[in-house]
Amino acid sequence: MTRTGLKPADVTTQVLQMKQFDPDYVHLMNTEEPVVAFLKEFERQNFHPTTFALYTVSSKNVWDSVGELAAGKPFDTRSPQWWDTDNEGIVLARELNARWHPEVTFRTGLYLRGFFGFTAAAEAMGRAIDTAGYENLDGETMREAWETIRDFVPMGSGIRYTYTPNDHRGIQGIMWHQWTEEGTIEKVHDWFTPDPMPQEQRSDEFWLSD
Predict the structure, then answer these.
(1) What is the rounded average pLDDT for all residues in the chain?
(2) Of 6, 47, 106, 190, which one has the fewest beta carbons inside 10 Å?
(3) Which long-range contacts (CB under 8 A, 24 or more apart) does 1-8 make?
(4) Contact 11, 38 (CB under 8 A)
(5) ∠ at Cα 120 (117, 115), nearest 5°?
(6) Domains in the chain, ordered, with CATH?
(7) Residue 177 φ then ψ, to 5°
(8) Residue 84's pLDDT is what?
(9) Rg (CA), the chain
């Protein structure tokens, strides 16, 4: 395993290094601009590794910039997406967006993950108020309330939020999508929850060692 800084200004050098390393796969953990730059440079250098990416590839800006170069490259999602208009949470997010920002016609997965995350925060705050009273809200009462969140699914989203004293990540589930060659997005498979990584693997040193 190796890592690069993923800076668009240096993609030519970095892709040359990737080709020498001959990776089994490349995971683009970055925002729209570097994704576009790397996909174009992969094509220019005739380098076609198996590529995965974060939810930023779901942005229409990426498709408008690189088109079919994005097709078939799975990206992870941690919440329903903007096009999931049969989901009540997405319907609400679209209604609020149309009310306050009608000029914006698309929201990325990161935005929607934040939207659903705030619904979990609101649930935790409500529980804290019910338990301790509004006048007693503080960091401790909020922490205690957060840690009662178990398999909380906001607004039919399919996300299951769970907080424990030893794990405050909240979301353990993941789903994969990909662009089709026609410029639409399709689901690769439904939600699943991967097994947690052993503690010794939760460090850069483990993955960067021989």
Answers:
(1) 85
(2) 190
(3) 1/207, 1/208, 2/208, 3/208, 6/30, 6/34, 6/38, 7/34, 8/33, 8/34, 8/37, 8/38
(4) yes
(5) 30
(6) 1-78+174-210 (3.40.50.2300), 79-172 (no CATH)
(7) -125, 170
(8) 81
(9) 20
- For residue 124, the Cα-to-chain-centroid distance in whole angstroms is 22
pLDDT band at 82 (very low <50, low <70, confident <90, very high): confident
Residue 76: beta bridge partners? 176
N-to-C CA span, the chain: 9
Phi first, then psi, for residue 80 (nearest 5°) are -55, 155
pLDDT tens for residues 126-169?
A: 999 999 999 999 999 999 999 999 888 888 777 788 888 888 77
Quote the tokens at residue 151. Answer: 């398999």
- β strands within the chain, DSSP E: 25-28, 50-53, 75-77, 161-164, 167-171, 174-179, 185-192
pLDDT, average across residues 69-95: 87
Single out the residue of 35, 80, 32, 40 nearest to residue 185, CA to CA: 80
Tokens 């947690």 label which residue? 196
Nearest partner of 114 among 75, 80, 88, judged by Cα = 80
Across residues 97-111, what is the average pLDDT?
89
